[in-house]
């Protein structure tokens, strides 16, 4: 059977279980998607086309690969705009497949922008389909890289989508994806150290979620009776109501990082960025680094022992080794849980207090506390934005299931929360899906709000409306760190609930603390019939949250 490349790609996507593709036109594969009956989620710009697919891969932990298409080729306008989305996916290690038109043979070197070199800087692999019969080969390679090893975006450029090949010559079989188990000698060495430590701490990263290893993490932590912190991107990898859970950030996390003599890092790069912890006094600690590959070993800190392999297989191997040495009982238990509780109570006291605040304008923590009360935390999705909502929610929001909350952003690109909430609705249609944003994130979203109405995506955008970029201007930090670029039109000047209401959203504007819960309930209720909601909470500027260890404020 002779088919064209675009059709071949779409049929392979179907074989790989891809149920829909996000896009912003134009891309020559799109007509084949339409003809072959694969639904397209048409966003209103190319960056969001990437971001929704990226977020879908994150939220499903790579078990369902997000796919997007956008404009490329000699008129790479779409690709240039999509670059921000790809850079973010690459930075955060998200296994998203980006398909675009390639520069046709005979046209290379004519544009100022060099597609191949640009794409290589933001992808795990950039494939260029230079012969039609290579379609199955390149798709096999793409899905191998998407499903194996360290996650990251794959970009495929198709210079001639109408060229034909024989579909039966190299029949496609879906790619399973492969994992590796750690070297048993490394596991033994790690357990030697772990059992000899006085104050060990487990430092869990997003690799635990990608490996589907949350249960294994819990089992190991319980067996060895060791407290757990998670990174922002791993928030939810460990149940946050568990007695051994210390936190993502806050004074109690700093306390445990400081006092630990051994850090068992699993599924984390341990590369302190703007939104992660540094390790204090690393030379005085034993760092055991369990990671899927060698890239992050001996990176920022000297690694005492590396255990290379899939996070789930590694956790299982560690557990088995500990069990074997302690007749299944684990090492001697101190009252670790009581210490963790005391540290959490102390660290979180100031936030818990404002979560009950009756002040007006509303304290943002009141909104977060009430949101936790309204949502079924085992059947809902919440994500933050860049800005205070990230820092505040990652300090206090209790996440009980993996991806009940999506933390994101080694660098955090404003506007991603809307893409994440859309992706969560696609991944788990029965779950409430909430994006919590400030005015900067909202500004990025505007053009894409129409998508929610068109696609009947019942998600709620919670706007912490405080009239400025709160972390930047004068607030609780004296003059603020960017006082000249802080103020935007606020709730006194613009009624955003009317603006967005006119689009067709269910909207409310809430200025009374007692109205937070009823308004959230109404929003989540209309969401169940596929109508999006936007709630503007008139809040005070309150840039207060727990610090990352080793970071200054800012
Ligand atoms: C694409 C992008 N550009 C710039 C930034 C820097 N940035 C981070 S937060 C922020 C402003 C946040 O203000 P707002 O959304 O009002 O939230 P608030 O801090 O007031 O809660 C800016 C400009 C960013 N994160 N992403
Ligand atoms: Mg603001």
Core attributes:
554 residues; alpha/beta; six-stranded parallel β-sheet; 19 helices; globular; binds thiamine diphosphate; binds magnesium ion
Secondary structure elements and pairings:
Blueprint: E1 2-4, H1 5-15, E2 21-23, H2 29-35, E3 40-42, H3 46-59, E4 67-70, H4 77-92, E5 97-101, H5 115-120, E6 125-128, H6 135-147, E7 154-158, E8 164-166, H7 184-196, E9 200-204, H8 207-210, H9 214-224, E10 228-230, E11 245-247, H10 251-259, E12 262-266, E13 286-291, E14 305-308, H11 311-325, H12 336-355, H13 364-374, E15 380-383, H14 388-396, E16 405-406, H15 416-427, E17 432-437, H16 439-445, H17 449-454, E18 460-465, H18 496-503, E19 506-510, H19 516-527, E20 533-538
Parallel strand pairs: 2-3, 2-4, 4-5, 5-7, 6-7, 9-10, 9-12, 10-11, 12-13, 13-14, 15-16, 15-17, 17-18, 18-20, 19-20
Antiparallel strand pairs: 1-8
Helix pairs in contact: 1-2, 3-4, 3-15, 7-11, 9-11, 10-12, 12-13, 13-14, 13-19
The protein binds thiamine diphosphate and magnesium ion.
The site of thiamine diphosphate has 17 residues, from α14 and α16.
First-to-last CA distance: 60 Å
| Cα shape | globular
Bound molecules: thiamine diphosphate, magnesium ion
Low-confidence stretches: none
Query: How much strand content do the residues show?
Result: 15-25%
Rg computed from alpha carbons, rounded to a whole number of angstroms? 24 Å
How does the major sheet shape up? Answer: 6 strands, parallel
Reading side by side through the largest sheet, how are the strands ordered? 3-2-4-5-7-6
Helix content: 25-40%
Write down the oligomeric state: single chain
């Amino acid at each position: 059977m002779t088919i064209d490349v675009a059709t071949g790609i779409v049929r392979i996507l179907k074989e790989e279980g891809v149920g829909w593709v996000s896009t912003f036109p134009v891309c020559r594969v799109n007509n084949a998607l339409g003809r072959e009956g694969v639904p397209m989620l048409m966003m209103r710009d190319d960056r969001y086309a990437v971001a929704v697919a990226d977020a879908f891969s994150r939220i499903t932990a790579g078990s369902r690969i997000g796919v997007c298409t956008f404009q490329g080729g000699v008129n790479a306008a779409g690709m240039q705009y999509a670059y921000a989305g790809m850079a973010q996916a690459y930075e955060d290690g998200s296994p998203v497949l980006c398909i675009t038109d390639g520069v046709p043979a005979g046209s290379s070197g004519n544009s100022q922008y060099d597609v191949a070199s640009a794409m290589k800087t933001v992808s795990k692999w950039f494939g260029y389909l230079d012969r039609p019969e290579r379609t199955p080969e390149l798709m096999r390679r793409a899905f191998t890289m998407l499903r194996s090893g360290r996650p990251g975006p794959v970009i495929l450029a198709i210079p001639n989508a109408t060229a034909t090949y024989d579909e039966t010559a190299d029949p496609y079989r879906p790619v399973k994806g492969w994992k590796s188990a750690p070297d048993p000698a490394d596991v033994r060495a790690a357990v030697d150290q772990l059992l000899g430590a006085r104050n060990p701490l487990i430092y869990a990263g997003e690799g635990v979620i990608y490996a589907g290893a949350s249960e294994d993490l819990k089992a190991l932590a319980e067996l060895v009776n060791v407290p757990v912190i998670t990174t922002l991107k791993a928030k939810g990898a460990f149940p946050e109501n568990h007695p051994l859970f210390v936190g993502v950030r806050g004074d109690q996390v700093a306390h445990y990082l400081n006092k630990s003599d051994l850090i068992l890092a699993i599924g984390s790069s341990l590369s302190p960025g703007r939104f992660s912890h540094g390790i204090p006094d690393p030379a005085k600690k034993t760092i055991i680094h369990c990671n899927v590959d060698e890239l992050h070993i001996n990176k920022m800190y000297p690694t005492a022992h590396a255990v290379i392999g899939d996070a789930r297989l590694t956790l299982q191997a560690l557990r088995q080794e500990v069990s074997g040495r302690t007749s299944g009982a684990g090492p001697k238990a101190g009252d670790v849980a009581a210490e963790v509780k005391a540290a959490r109570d102390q660290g979180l006291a100031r936030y818990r207090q404002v979560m009950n605040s009756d002040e007006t304008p509303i304290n943002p923590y009141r909104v977060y506390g009430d949101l936790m009360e309204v949502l079924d935390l085992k059947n809902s999705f919440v994500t933050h934005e860049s800005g205070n909502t990230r820092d505040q929610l990652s300090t206090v929001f209790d996440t009980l299931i993996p991806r009940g909350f999506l933390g994101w952003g080694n660098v955090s690109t404003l506007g991603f929360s809307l893409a994440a909430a859309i992706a969560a609705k696609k991944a788990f249609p029965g779950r409430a899906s909430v994006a919590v944003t400030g005015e900067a994130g909202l500004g990025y979203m505007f053009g894409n709000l129409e998508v929610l109405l068109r696609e009947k995506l019942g998600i709620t955008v919670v706007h912490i409306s405080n009239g400025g970029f709160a972390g930047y201007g004068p607030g609780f930090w004296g003059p603020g760190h960017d006082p000249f670029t802080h103020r935007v039109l606020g709730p006194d000047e613009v009624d955003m609930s009317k603006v967005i209401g006119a689009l067709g959203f269910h909207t409310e504007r809430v200025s009374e603390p007692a109205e937070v819960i009823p308004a959230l309930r109404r929003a989540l209720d209309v969401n169940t019939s596929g109508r999006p909601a936007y709630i503007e909470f008139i809040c005070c500027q309150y840039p207060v949250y727990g610090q990352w260890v080793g970071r200054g404020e800012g």
